[in-house]
Amino acid sequence: MSYAPSAAAVKKIDGIIAPYPEKSAALLPVLRVVQDELGCVPPEAETWVAAKLGIQPIRIREVLSFYTMFRRRPAGKTIIQVCRNLSCTLAGAEDIIGFLKERLHVGPDGTTPDGRITLVTVECLGHCDHSPCLQIDGIDHGPVTRDGVAALLEELRAHE
Amino acid sequence: MSEDAVRLIPADEGSWRLEAYLRRGGYEAARKAVMSMAPADVITEVRKAGLRGRGGAGFPAGLKWSFVPQGGAGPKYLCVNADEGEPGTFKDRAILVRNPHQLIEGMTIAAFGVGIRKAFIYVRGEYGRIAGRLREAIAEAEDEGFLGGGIFGSGFDLEVIVHLGAGAYICGEETALLESIEGRRGQPRLKPPFPAVVGLFRAPTAINNVETLANVPLIIGRGADWFLGRGLPKDGGTRLFGVSGAVRRPGLYELPMGTQLRTIIEIHAGGPPEGVAIKAVIPGGLSAPALRPDELDVTMDFDALARAGSMLGSAGIIVIGDKIPILDVLKVMARFYAHESCGQCTPCRIGTSWIHKTVMRIGEGQGRASDLDHILRLADGMKGRTLCPMGDAAALPVQALVTKFRDELEKAVAR
Ligand SMILES: Cc1cc2nc3c(=O)[nH]c(=O)nc-3n(C[C@H](O)[C@H](O)[C@H](O)COP(=O)(O)O)c2cc1C
Ligand code: FES
What we know:
The structure holds two protein chains of two kinds.
Chain A: H1 7-17, H2 27-38, H3 43-53, H4 57-66, E1 78-83, H5 86-90, H6 93-104, E2 110-111, E3 117-122, E4 134-136, E5 139-141, H7 146-158
Parallel strand pairs in A: 1-3
Antiparallel strand pairs in A: 1-4, 2-3, 4-5
Helix pairs in contact in A: 1-2, 3-4
Chain B: H1 18-23, H2 28-36, H3 39-48, H4 61-66, E1 77-82, H5 91-98, H6 100-114, E2 118-123, H7 128-143, E3 159-164, H8 174-181, E4 205-209, H9 210-222, H10 224-229, E5 238-245, E6 251-256, H11 261-268, E7 278-282, H12 302-307, E8 316-321, H13 326-340, H14 346-363, H15 371-382, H16 390-404, H17 406-414
Parallel strand pairs in B: 1-2, 1-4, 2-3, 5-8
Antiparallel strand pairs in B: 5-6, 7-8
Helix pairs in contact in B: 2-6, 2-9, 3-6, 5-6, 6-9, 13-14, 13-16, 14-15, 15-16
Bound molecules: flavin mononucleotide and FE2/S2 (inorganic) cluster (FES).
FE2/S2 (inorganic) cluster is lined by residues 83, 85-88, 124-128, 131, 133 of chain A.
């Protein structure tokens, strides 16, 4: 299988690369564009990115496996990241995580069978004054309660 | 002069917009520096102001800049550390959201002083949406001639690139951050050479935290003496103290450097909620060794906290209430460092994961009498034996909890 991003993504990628003194330095932001488009960075995309930036494909794999925000396999359409570091734990994060697991019927890093939602636990989101907190597709919520989380899930369903 | 003009987190409506910043006197300090000061005088003024790095280590900013070689034909870079990964810290987020132009102005002044024409802002991946607002602010500043080519009509240029991380605590360590901008795993580099001499793309590089740079316009605009008057004689300015955990009013409090910890917790953050007593306080982000309730009369500045056996670090204050078992705190800490160790140095890679396993075993009721000493020994084996300060950052807070709350933990082991 071979992969080529959409024309719009290629244009975006070229714009990202331009200001870097060395092309290869644009690797992280370029992978982000690819992941935004595909939902993950599959092996065929690794090959394309390596050629685009003029680096060995192994460099891509090294980076993908190091940074927690990159995914090599598809995830749900929506990603819920729940913080479980100290301030959030003190404010009841484990209860929120338990509630989400129960409602979604998935464990951490699991995706609902319909492929809609992936639940991820993360370390501090830098929002500790709003603990316990979580991010849904990059949008911060907190402090959240069980009821608040139930309402957020309801909203997600309504937006289907 | 309104109080907002001298605050890092102003309260005015739409404070992040360029018009609002200009109303607060924004970009006047950069204009003064670029149009009427010699670069060396900019560095001297910042040195006189006693501005210590707000990222964690507290290194004097002006002194760091003076290590970057003067002149030379090759490029030099400025890297802004907006990785903000230290648990309990949410101050740089507030600057980026409420006052991005003050950061940009601080960058312009620093770059002018050091002779830099290209800067990167490394923003943690989780702040992707916030980075969007930062990009807008950069575009606004460029349109007005405060950034880009020929700033204020002078011959000075500065290009700024926002670089998003992708989820790795270690990338906040300055040399890991450089690796990450260069498109590699965030594995710290051996020092020396220090980044001021060999940094980004092998060129001399100044690296500063967001809050550090956001203070620079105040120093250049109002002078080093004014800035010192806002803090301590060797540790100038205010500090953004973030308070979270068992308090009534969690939040960010901008107060003079050297404000007493107890005052911040009891007066500003409202103290613990009804029926809760303080068991421990982590004063400067998760990596800062915890203090007991009888140790809270310390002043919040770099030297006083070092004397108290802890550190000011990122000034993220986490208040732990008496209803929480210390073992739960230790579990979070141990898991975090084991997860975030970059894996490059054996003492940190093995030490953090071993400590984590031991703590989890105690949590499962399988503790052994020797476990606490074992944890202390493992932590000792990490200290000072790693390329970057992460080994110490992981060892010291664990040792503090085990030492100071030993009785409680012994009971958990014996359970
Ligand atoms: C493991 C580790 C993580 C760090 N994380 C951050 C961070 O998120 N933000 C930051 O500004 N500094 C962080 N630092 C400190 C930086 O290495 C560096 O000292 C700082 O960016 C320098 O800027 P300053 O002098 O303005 O504080 C970290 C250090 C270590 C060892
Ligand atoms: S601990 Fe959860 S956001 Fe900081």
